[in-house]
Amino acid sequence: MTQQKTVAWVTGGTGGIGTAICRGLADAGYQVLAGYNNPEKARTWLETQRTDGYDSIDILGVDLTSYEACQNGVNEAREKYGPISVLVNCAGITRDGTLKKMSPDQWNEVIDTNLNSVFNTCRSVIESMLEENYGRIVNISSINGRKGQFGQVNYSAAKAGMHGLTMALAQETATKGITVNTVSPGYIATDMIMKIPEKVREAIRETIPMKRYGTPEEIARLVAFLADRDNGFITGANIDINGGQFMG
Ligand code: CAA
């Protein structure tokens, strides 16, 4: 074991929002393990973090859609750094299309990556969190799990499901020093948003009262707040962070 810092695992850590979350948690003193999907991109990404002085960030490559792979990844991480005390479920994909055109593959890929993965990761860390009597789980959902979104029955279902899991698990762990919360970002300036056709994207931006996209750093600040050891009384909550686009 190389260090004694509290260990945080951020799935989707090399992505747009994930990168800011990793850096925010590293700034707050955690040993961060960034989950990734693309090994080549992850290596380059890690070099950038190191060049920028983030020595307490490492990468952890796990196929989140596989329960066994998650368990193995968590065991490897524990041997190297100690038990994972903070889990941020930030991995997510879109396969947009209206239902009448959506293939079963588009549905299944999104449910597997965005929702089944959350069972796999939470299940893989929960026993050690219970043993330690301490844990912080933050599920990164979406405004579109709150209000639905044209062209996203798959994504909206997965993201709404995520918060159901949050509320149930929060009850199961409430007396065990573990908090479980959902963060629901609106449209944040990342590559995922840039994939939306420009005309559609601009129309969406017009519906945001603040008339701008959010920044990954704005999400990261909220995640670091929820992950804080001293922040032990917020659990089962959903926190919207969307520039006023949806007020539920
Ligand atoms: N509400 C109602 N009608 C709409 C609509 C809306 N929001 N958007 C489009 N339509 C209408 C169109 O006007 C069009 O109508 P006509 O046929 O009468 O002209 C019809 O629906 C078809 O629309 P498109 O031309 O857009 O159809 P398409 O097949 O080319 O594209 C789509 C469908 C891929 C879903 C496209 O609309 C799209 O990309 N939408 C954006 C989806 C979106 O917001 N994704 C978010 C990704 S980012 C993310 O998910 C992160 C996060 O958490 C926020």
From TrEMBL:
Gene3D superfamilies: NAD(P)-binding Rossmann-like Domain
MF GO annotations: acetoacetyl-CoA reductase activity
Any one of the GO CC terms: cytoplasm
Domain (Ketoreductase): residue spans on this chain: 6-186
Key words of the record: Oxidoreductase
Annotated GO biological process: monocarboxylic acid metabolic process; poly-hydroxybutyrate biosynthetic process
Top-level taxon in the UniProt lineage: Bacteria
InterPro entries: Acetoacetyl-CoA_reductase, KR_dom, NAD(P)-bd_dom_sf, Sc_DH/Rdtase_CS, SDR, SDR_fam
Pfam families per record: adh_short (PF00106)
UniProt keyword Magnesium present: no
Membership in a protein family: Belongs to the short-chain dehydrogenases/reductases (SDR) family.
The name this protein goes by in its record: 3-ketoacyl-ACP reductase
Organism: Halomonas cupida
